[in-house]
Structure formats: structure tokens, C-alpha cells
Design a protein that fits this description.
Number of helices: 7
CATH topology of the largest domain: Glutaredoxin
Order of helices and strands: HHHHEHHEEEH
Strand content: 5-15%
CATH class of the largest domain: Alpha Beta
Radius of gyration: 19 Å
Helix content: 40-55%
Number of strands: 4
Distance between the termini: 57 Å
Largest sheet: 4 strands, mixed
Structural class: alpha+beta
Number of domains: 2
Bound molecules: FE2/S2 (inorganic) cluster
CATH superfamily of the largest domain: Glutaredoxin
């Protein structure tokens, strides 16, 4: 009787992803801070760093999976799923929180039918939260595709979301 081999990290990824990761790792593995650089490049080139991808990088770099996971979850730049065409981030710093961001989040949830951390089913918009972006005097602040949008008025906000869902 032959035993089925236990799945390895190689089997969790499609050939294209594996090839992309192999190329990134080969190019950067000897640089100082290689792990960070490799994860950064992966996010930029592939668009996200899924858990199977994290396991693959850990194996290839001979570091614990927890080390890779720690980096990916610490920096908001990384995502574990593909982002939508547009990304809106709600600033959760104190000034913005007090200035009405929770209400904007509720409105956005109603308008999109999606939650924070999710992408609309049509792949159009990803909603996330972020820390203070340094524009506290303009609270409440959101960022749209990395552009800071301050003094977001609740009555104008639905238009902004609508535009993102349609463009
Ligand atoms: S608290 Fe939102 S920009 Fe500082």
C-alpha cells in the first residue's frame, strides 16, 4: 500500500505564484533585511501575501512561519488577500475616531454590503482601517488609494463611495 505524502508548502501554491516567489527570493535573499524586502516585493508584484505564500517564504528562507506572519500582520501595507481596484482606509487615530470615522464606517458598510477587511464581491473596493496618517487637523480622515481625504462630510460621503464603486 502506498501512502499519500503529506501536503507540502509547494503544493499549496499554483505554479505562477511559486515561480514569482522563487524569483523574488533568489533576487533578494542575500540582502540585509531580506525577509522584509522579499515580503515587500511580493506584496507589490503579486498584490498580496496569503498564508500559503507566507509558509513558502518561511520554508525557503529557513525562518519560522511565525516570523513571517508577524511581519505581515504588523504592517498594514501587507494584505493576505487580493485588494480590490480601489482601497479606502478609515483612520482610527483618536482625532478621527472622535471626529466621526465610526459613523463613516457604518455608512460605508451599508452602502457596500461589505465589512472592514473585505473587498466587495465585484472586486471594486476594499475597506480597511489604518492608524493616524498625520492629518489630524483634518479629521475625519480616510485615504483613497493612498491619497489622504480630509474633512469628510457625512452628507458627501455616500457620493465618494458611489464613485469608488463605479469607477
Ligand atoms: S487621527 Fe486621523 S489623521 Fe491623525
Amino acid at each position: 500500500m502506498t501512502e499519500t505524502p503529506a501536503p507540502t508548502t509547494e503544493h499549496e501554491l499554483c505554479e505562477n505564484k511559486r515561480a514569482a516567489l522563487d524569483a523574488i527570493i533568489a533576487q533578494h535573499r542575500d540582502r540585509p533585511g531580506a525577509l522584509m524586502v522579499i515580503l515587500n516585493e511580493t506584496q507589490k508584484q503579486v498584490g498580496y501575501v496569503s498564508e500559503p505564500m507566507q509558509r513558502y517564504v518561511a520554508k525557503k528562507m529557513r525562518v519560522p512561519v511565525s516570523a513571517v506572519h508577524g511581519v505581515v500582520t504588523f504592517y498594514s501595507f501587507f494584505t493576505t488577500q487580493p485588494r480590490g481596484k480601489h482601497t479606502i482606509k478609515f483612520c482610527m487615530g483618536t482625532a478621527c475616531y472622535v471626529g466621526g470615522v465610526p459613523q463613516l464606517i457604518e455608512k460605508a458598510k451599508q452602502l457596500t454590503g461589505s465589512d472592514i477587511g473585505q473587498t466587495t464581491p465585484d472586486g471594486q473596493l476594499t475597506m480597511e482601517v489604518c492608524r493616524c496618517v498625520g492629518a489630524c487637523s483634518q479629521a475625519p480622515v480616510v485615504t483613497v488609494d493612498d491619497e489622504v481625504v480630509g474633512r469628510v462630510k457625512p452628507n458627501k460621503f455616500p457620493q465618494l463611495i458611489k464613485k469608488l464603486l463605479e469607477s
